[in-house]
Amino acid sequence: MMDQRKNRFSQIIRQYIITFGVLIILLLGVEGLLRLEKGLRLIDDIPYIVVNGLTVFTPNVDTIVTGGAFTPIHVKTNKEGFASPDYPLVASSSINRIIFLGNSFTRGFDVDYNKKFTSLVEQWMNEISVASSTKFQVMNYAIGGYSFIDQLVVYYRYVRKYHPEVVLLVVYPPWDFHTNQNFLAQKDIILKAKLDELNASTTLLQKETASYLPSSASTANAISNWELFRFGRRIAAAIGERLYGVTLNKSALISRPASIFYRLGVRLHLLSAQQRIGADSVNTADNLPYFNPEDAKEAAIMRYSGALAEKLARAVEDDGGQFGLVIIPSYWQVDAKYRNQLLAGDSSSLDFSLPSRILTTPLAGRYQVLDLAPSFDNAINIDHTQLFVRDVGHLTGQGHDLTAREIVKFLQTKFKF
Predict the structure, then answer these.
(1) If you average pLDDT over residues 242-254, what whole number do you get?
(2) What's the sign of the alpha-carbon dihedral 124, 130, 132, 138?
(3) What is the per-residue pLDDT for 127?
(4) Of 145, 147, 158, 235, whose Cβ has the fewest other Cβ atoms within 10 Å?
(5) pLDDT of residue 335
(6) pLDDT at residue 105 in the model
(7) Which residues, 6+ apart, have CB-to-CB distance to 212 below 8 Å?
C-alpha cells in the first residue's frame, strides 16, 4: 500500500513538473513573440497594380510596412495610387502647386509619409509664406523603379491636369541610367513620339512590369499575394530587427557572405579580381553605381537620358509650367570612404560628376538644375551626417531633411517663390 501511495505521489509530481515545464515553454514563447513585436509589421511595401500598362500602388492605402532597412514605416497612397496627398483638380488663385516626379528616393521608401522630403518641402514652404496669402500644395508622383519613360507618361496621365506651377524631376543617375537603358533600342521612336502616343503604348510600358508583378497580375491577385506572403515577411523582419538592428539591408544576409566568398576566391586564385571600373565590372543598379563615359553604350544611355529629361521639360513648358531637375548623388560619389575604394588602382581617373554633366547638357542654360552632390559631400565628410541608410542606399531621415532644405532654397532663388 505504501509503495502504491509513493508511486501515485511520484506520478502527481511528474505531472506537475511536466505541466509546469509546458507552461514555462509557452510563457517563453509568448515572451519571445512579444520581444519580436517591434518587427511584426506588414511586408516591406504596399502592393503594386498595373493600370493601362503603368505600375502604380494600390490606391487609398494607409498602413504600416517595413522599409528597406526593416524599420516600421507609415505609408499612405492617394486615390490614384501614389504616395501623395489628394488635392482637387482646380486650385484657388492663392495656391502654388509643386509636383515631384522620380523613383524610390522621391517616393521616400525608408521614412514615414510625413518625413519624406516632398512632405517637408510643402510644410516649410507654407511656414515661410505664413505672413502672406500664398499657400503651397506639393504632390508626389514618384514610384520606385520608374524610368524616364514612366515619368513622361505619369506627367501626361496624372500631373498636367493639376496645372502645376513647377514640376521637379528628381533623379538618382545610376538607377535612372539603368532603367532608361531598357528603352535605348526605341530611342528614335520615343524621342519623336508625342506624349499621348507614349501613354497609349501599354506594350512599351509593360517592359518593366515584370520587376514589380507577374505579367498576369491584377488588383485582386496583387492584394491576394500580398496577404499570402505577409506572415513570413513579418517574421523575417522581426528576426532581422532583433538580431541586426534597424539598419539591416534586405539583401545583407546574401550580399555580405557573397562578398566574403568573393574575396576568398580571389585570394585562392579561383576568381579574377576586377581591376577597373567599367561597363562589365560595375553593378550599375546597386552597390557600385557608376556609369562609365568611356563605354560607348553607357555614354549613349546618359545622352539619351538627358534627351528624355529635355522632352519632359518642353512638355511642362508647353503647358505653362516651369521645369527643374534635382540630382541626388550616389553615396559612392559623395562618401569619401566609398569613393576612395573606387579611386584605387586603374580607376584613379574617375570623374564622378561627369555622368551628371552629360545628363544635364541638353538642359543647360534653359532649365533650372540643382545638383545635391556638394551639400551631400559636405554633410557626410565634414559634419559626419548619415544621409544614406547603411548598405541600402536610400535616404535616411537626415538625408530627406537636407534634401528638403536644399530644394526649398532652390525654389526660392530659382523660381522666385
Answers:
(1) 43
(2) positive
(3) 94
(4) 235
(5) 86
(6) 94
(7) 48, 50, 55, 145
CA distances (Å), origin 298, targets 280, 334, 338:
11, 21, 22
Percent above pLDDT 90 for the chain: 42
DSSP string computed for 319-380: TT-EEEEEEPPPHHHH-HHHHHHHTSGGGTT--TTHHHHHHHGGGTTTSEEEE-HHHHHHHH
Asked whether the beta carbons of 402 and 376 are under 8 A apart, the reply is: yes
* Buried b / exposed e along 299-320 (16+ C-beta atoms within 10 A): bebbbbbbbbbbbbbebbeebe
Provide the β-strand partners of residue 54: 51
Residue-level pLDDT at 302: 94
Q: Are strands 54-57 and 48-51 parallel, antiparallel or unpaired?
A: antiparallel
d(CA 177, CA 48): 23
- Burial of 228 (C-beta count, 10 Å sphere; 0-12/13-18/19+): exposed
Residue 278 identity: G
Name the 3-class secondary structure at 3. Answer: helix
Partnered with residue 139 across adjacent β-strands are 99
Q: What is the mean pLDDT of the chain?
A: 78
What gap in Å lies between CA 327 and CA 175, rounded to an integer?
12
- Name the phi and psi angles at 311, rounded to 5: -60, -45
Q: Are 164 and 321 in contact (CB under 8 A)?
A: yes
Reported confidence tier of residue 242, pLDDT bands at 50, 70, 90: low
Distances, alpha carbon 356 to alpha carbons 314, 330, 359, in Å: 20, 11, 5
**Residue 263's pLDDT band (cuts 50, 70, 90):** low
Query: Which of 308, 364, 368, 355 is closest to 168 using CA atoms?
Result: 368
49: amino acid identity, one letter: I
In this prediction, residues 40-54 reach a mean pLDDT of 72
